[in-house]
Fold:
Amino acid sequence: MRSPMYVLLMCLSLTAAGRAAAQDAVFPVEGTNLNEGELAAIGSSITSAYAAQSGRSVLGPNDVATSLARTQSERDTAQELGLSEYIHVSAVRLTSRITLEARRVNRHGSVLFEVRTTALSLDDMEPVAERLAAALWRRTELKHTRTLDNVTGK
Structure:
């Protein structure tokens, strides 16, 4: 028979392991007037920026694509992969500007925070992704995320 202390330690270990395994993801970017490579670049930029902001493990669009194709639902994919939260991004290119709308969503599908911004071109995507990720992570307005390193022409 196991001692109560041993059982307690095992329960705490399993709980900590479950928390460590939980991670976040950026789902494939939904886009209009952008090709697959451009959507992939946007998704990759946002994934890197969000991982840097949060200090968490973040799966990218390619990492969740297979599960998403099977479940046909972001919420179901989040639960299947054991995600704690995920980022939904939509991008629309007009002539040259790209409007981005991103939502931070919990595993149950509830929106935790939303942000909307515009990149003047794909060349602006890195600093725009940094600001977008900071706004989502901190749940703050985009204007409060500006630094000397992420200011764009806009």
The longest strand covers residues 83-93. The beta strands are 23-26, 30-32, 58-59, 83-93, 98-106, 111-119.
